[in-house]
Design goal:
It contains 1 helix and 29 strands. The chain is an all-beta fold. It has 2 domains: about 250 residues, Jelly Rolls; about 120 residues, Galactose-binding domain-like (Jelly Rolls, Sandwich), CATH 2.60.120. The strands form 4 sheets. Strands 1, 3, 4, 5, 6, 7, 9, 14, 15, 16 and 18 form an 11-stranded mixed β-sheet that branches. Strands 2-8-17-10-11-12-13 form a 7-stranded antiparallel β-sheet, with no helix packed on it. Strands 19, 21, 22, 24, 27 and 29 form a 6-stranded antiparallel β-sheet that branches. Strand 14 and strand 15 form a beta hairpin.
């Protein structure tokens, strides 16, 4: 959102080519505001004039944010207040909630007229200590004037202690409802409209000073009138104007790893065979047989759901351990499925400390086949 156009120094394009980051097929909701009641304790309001360096034309007031029909509405008005000719609202989660990595999205319907500048964006939580742009800024969505276009940009201080920015944009019918999102991990930030990616930036290993984007950020929503980017001409006939936000949601990536049963590093007593679900499965599992899977990394400490794809004519028992049985994680009954290739999925929840282990699957009672094992961080 913050623009100091006279200071813009183009980023080194070669260093900021799109990176291929880890794609997470699953997301877990960790925080949201659905705006179904009053504007609750999730937000604080910034009040004042000028837009903190943007030369905006409005005075930000708490009174300009309301809930209407289950959505947040920020209304910009033509009215004199605090020496300014317009009022609007700016709200943030600073001091209340910060985020690092994940999917950050909002479903929004935007105003479009000369002088409009609505935005959904993020600033580094260390802003009070280091200032801007050293804190970093991630603009999830910005729209200016009456364009049918939205912008996604990062701002930061590069390796030469100079201001840098790198952004992209895409055509969008901004006056309709759309979901605007970024997906952010240690390697890249990617921008989406309704699930369609239109921009990506590489932040792996702090390339070109982008280490700011490996830290915590807080969220902001605001609707500016005029300023350095949209300019200072305003279609006053369009006022009052409303920026609608149906929800804001933050998701964390769900860590999951599936291991094919036949990919063991070592085993005792088992064999592989063709599987009716494709590929191979492990069979001929008798009591006291086992399989080991070396160097499996668990990124964080906590609970993991462990699923096993199993088949058995008459049932059995399996157990899970780490490092050749030195850490026992628990047993699980294998049900009778009616045949060696009649598959079902069973699961239990175990607690694992972060680290890299050799994972073992043991048969206290044999008589079952296994196709795969899957770990999911809860």
């Amino acid at each position: 959102m913050k623009r100091l156009l006279s200071l813009i120094r183009p980023a080194l394009a070669g260093l900021l080519m799109a990176a291929t980051g880890l794609a997470h097929a699953q997301w877990q909701l960790v925080w949201s505001d659905e705006f179904n009641g009053s504007i609750g304790p999730n937000w604080v309001f910034e009040t004042g004039a000028g837009g903190w360096g943007n030369n905006e034309l409005q005075y930000y007031r708490r009174e300009n944010a309301t809930i209407e029909n289950g959505a947040l509405v920020i209304t910009a008005r033509r009215e004199n207040f605090g020496g300014m000719a317009y009022t609007s609202a700016r709200m943030k989660t600073q001091g209340l909630k910060t985020f690092k990595f994940g999917r950050i999205e909002a479903r929004m319907k935007l105003p479009s007229f000369l002088g409009a500048w609505p935005a959904f964006w993020m600033l580094g939580a260390n802003l009070p200590q280091v200032g801007w742009p050293a804190s970093g800024e991630i603009d999830v969505m910005e729209h200016v004037n009456d364009e049918n276009r939205v912008y996604g940009t990062i701002h930061w201080k590069d390796n030469n202690n100079q201001y840098a920015q790198y952004g992209g944009n895409t055509a969008t019918t901004v006056t309709d409802w759309h979901v605007y999102a970024v997906e952010w991990d240690t390697n890249a930030i990617r921008w989406y409209v309704d699930g369609n990616k239109y921009h990506e930036v590489n932040i792996a290993n702090g390339v070109n000073g982008t280490d700011e984007f490996q830290k915590d950020f807080f969220l902001l929503l605001n609707f500016a009138i005029g300023g350095n980017w949209p300019g200072f001409n305003v279609n006053t006939a369009a006022l009052p104007a409303k920026m609608h936000v149906d929800y804001v949601r933050v998701y964390a990536p769900v860590w999951a790893r599936q291991i094919e049963a036949e990919a063991f590093s070592a085993q005792a007593g088992v064999q592989t065979e063709a599987c009716s679900e494709g590929g191979l499965n492990v069979g001929w599992i008798d009591t006291n047989d086992w399989m080991a899977y070396n160097s499996i990394n668990f990124p964080t400490s906590g609970n993991y759901r462990v699923e096993y794809r199993v088949a058995s004519p008459s049932g059995g028992t399996l157990s899970l351990d780490l490092n050749a049985g030195t850490i026992q994680l628990g047993q699980l009954g294998v049900p009778a499925t009616g045949g060696w290739q009649n598959w079902t999925t069973i699961s239990h929840t175990v607690n694992i400390n972060a680290g890299t282990y050799n994972v073992g699957v043991f048969a206290p009672r044999g008589g079952w086949n296994v196709n795969w094992i899957k770990f999911t961080r809860l």
